[in-house]
Amino acid sequence: MMDITCYHQIRCTSSPIRFISPPHPYRVSSKSIYINNQRKRRNLCLVASSSDTLIAGSHKEEDNGKTIKKSSTSIDEYEDLKSWMHSKGLPPCKIVLDEKDCKFHTQKHRPIHYVAASEDLEKGDIVFSVPDELVVTLERVLGNETIAELLTTNKLSELACLALYLMYEKKQKKKSFWYPFIRELDRQRGRGQLAAESPLLWSEDELAYLTGSPTKAAVLEREEGIKREYNELDTVWFMSGSLFQQYPYDIPTEAFPYEIFKQAFVAVQSCVVHLQKVSLARRFALVPLGPPLLAYKSNCKAMLTAVEGAVQLMVDRPYKAGEPIFIWCGPQPNSKLLINYGFVDEDNPYDRILVEASLSTEDPQYHDKRMVAQRNGKLAIQVFQVSAGKEKEAVYDMLPYLRLGYVSDPSEMESVISSQGPMSPCMERAVLDQLSHYFTARLAGYPTTLSEDEALLTDSSLDPKKRVATQLVKLEKKMLTACLHATVELIKQLPDDTISPCPAPYAPQLK
Question: Is the pTM of this model over 0.90?
C-alpha cells in the first residue's frame, strides 16, 4: 500500500464540478500581485467552514435560522453515507456500516463507524464495488492529468491537493456533491479504530507520551513538511482550472488557517488508499467505503483494487455476519501506522526499529574504510533495520561493520567486514561493549520500563492516545531488550569475558 505511503487514482465521468483548462499553465511567480488585487475584492475571513475543521464535524444543521441538534446514534444518520452511495450508483453490496462501542465518546469525538459484513462471507467474495464517479482522486480534483502530475512531482503532495479540495467542498455545505462523505470524515476525525488520532494532532503534553521513541522526532519532522506544503497551497489554486473557476476569490492561505489545513491533511492521510497499475494522477484515492471505515491490519492481504470503472474489495478470509472487515495497510512499521492512521498493531510482522552506525570521519583511514564498506554493500553512514523477532540476526549483521571501524591494519579491513568471525578478544569485547552500552542507553531514554508499560495497558479506562503511545514504546523496548540480550550472550561466549576492551579512538558512532 504505502509507506506513508499510500498512493491513488481514478477516472470520473460524472463530476459535480465542471473543469476547464488551467488559466495559468505555469508556476506563477507574480502571484502576490494578483493576490493583493483580490484582497480588495473579498471579505478577509479565516473561517474554513461552519465547523472548526474539515474534519471537525459539527453535529448541527441550520433550519430557518434555528439550530437543530441531531442524535449521534441515529441509525438513519450513519446509514446516510451508504444510502447516498446507492442513490449515486453503488451496486448492491455485502457490507453494513456499524458503530463501534467506545467509552471515550464526547460531543467533540463521536462514536466511530466501521464496515462490517452484512452476511457470512467466504474468501474471495467481492463485498463492494464503488463506481469511479464516487471516488476522489487528483485527476478529478484538478481536471487535468498534466497539471496533476506537475504538482505532485514538484513541491506538493497528493495529500495536500486532496485536503485542499475537500476543504473547499466543505465550504459549500449541503450544496456539495460530497456532503455525505465529508460528513462521515467529520465524524471520524481522522481517528483509527482504536479511537486515537494521529500524533500529528496531539498536544505537546500528549506528545510527551512518546518520550524516548524516535517517533516523537518523526512527528515533528512530518509537521514541518505539512507546513511547507501549506505555504504552497496558493500554487494549486492558481494552477488548477477547476478550483480557480469554482472559488475565484478564495485564496487558500487566506480562506484556511494552517491548523485547519493540518487537520484536513491528517484526516485525508488516514483514509487515502494506494491503487495499483494506474496513472500518476490517479494513484491516490479517497473511497467512501474505504479507510477509516475499513480497518487496517498488518497481516491481512485484502486490498482495494482498481478495476474498469470501479474500485472493489475482495476479502482474503471468511467473515461472519457483523464482523469488521480488514484490509492490508502495507509493510509499515508501527511508528508509521501510528503517525499515518492513529493505531498500533501488536501482531505487526513488519514492525522494526532503526540503528544508525557511521564510520568516524576523524579516523585517518576513513576513506579506505569507506571504500571497503562500499565494496561490501555498506555505506559510510549505514542504517540497520531491526525487525521484530529477528533481533539476534540484526545484531550479527551489525558486527562486521562495527569491527571495520576498530581495525587499523589495512590488510584486516576487507576480512573483518566480509567475515562473521570475531577479532582479537580485546577488540571484540570493545565492539560488543559499545553495542551493549548503546542499547542500554536507548532503553534508559524512556521514562517507563517495559513492565510498567504492560501494567499500564491493563487499565481499561486508559485514554486512547496514551494507550497507542504506550503500545508503541512497549514494542520498541521489546526489540531493544532482545538486542541487548543477544549482545550480552555474545559477550559471555568470549574465551575470556573478563578481558578489558581495547582502546578505540575511532570507534563508529551509533545513534
Answer: no
